[in-house]
Amino acid sequence: MGQSYRVAILGATGAVGTELLELLDQRNFPVSELKLLASPRSAGSTVMFQGESLTIEAVNESSFNNVDIVLASAGGSISKQWVKDIVAAGAVMIDNSSAFRMQPDVPLVVPEVNPEAAAAHQGVIANPNCTTILMSVAVYPLHQVLPIRRIVASTYQSASGAGARAMEEVKKQSIAILQGQEPKAEILPYPLAFNLFPHNSKLEASGYCEEELKMVNETRKIFGAPDLRITATCVRVPVLRAHSEAINLEFDSPFAVEKARELLIQAPGVQLVEDWDANYFPMPIDASGKDDVLVGRIRQDISNPNGLELWLCGDQIRKGAALNAIQIAELLIEKNLLKPALVANS
User: Fold this and answer.
1) Would you call 209 a catalytic residue per the annotation?
2) Which of 45, 106, 107, 132 has the most crowded Cβ, counting Cβ within 10 A?
3) Domain interval for residue 277
4) Where is the active site (predicted)?
């Protein structure tokens, strides 16, 4: 038998934490011991994992002793609070928040794109933003053949990006509207059912919101292309799960549509979905629960001979968050980039 590893999920009761638990099981991740960590209000509840009932523990200073990998998905403030304890215990934190993504000494990794970056970790690896991950998986295979000069991205982001409570809120809002009642918005700033609005993350002086700038800055870091021109418009749409993106790519010279299709058919983590006769292309309902990023409607930009257009959908909770984190953990094991966790002081 191969070696197995001690894993902790920080934020185990959230939408991404629940997906992490499911993926560890589905992918037969070599877990010897699993700790499920959350806030005190969730402590004591139980979940099943591989036929065993596991108790949720309240996170504390000793939670990370004798742990090899911490899959953190409890928010940036929680990650910042516990990072020193995690690193001091000898574990590697794969963090799903934005807390460390742009720190120069923290690798920002999409395994299909820049797996080599993981080797430089100093105890922390950042999981990129969901929209960045989905776009990177789809466009990097083209960038490798002919460097992209400019990206124009428009995103259509589901309620899942705001968490499980936002998804439930949209369901309740939909019922209220259909019953002729006023929808209530408590998790999201405005009703999302039968509606849409520009992404509600903090607006910067540039007029761009944080979500849009994440796509810009993170993509540049992942691609190792600090001068890559990127602009993004991010919109929240009334879809429960899976994000969609319309991507316009500009190259220095024409990029044949058929060549792009050939590359994407072969690309890891990508599934080409195109039925031109039926006008059938990627949809969130098809991407939900899937590991791959669905890509299609690849066409020549009629306004620019050096431009390509494509459309993609991907499961925000899965590849946009939990799956990418698990793949990073698998990469650490494959490349022997883990060190033995320190034993707790007696």
Assistant:
1) no
2) 132
3) 131-315
4) 130 (acyl-thioester intermediate), 243 (proton acceptor)
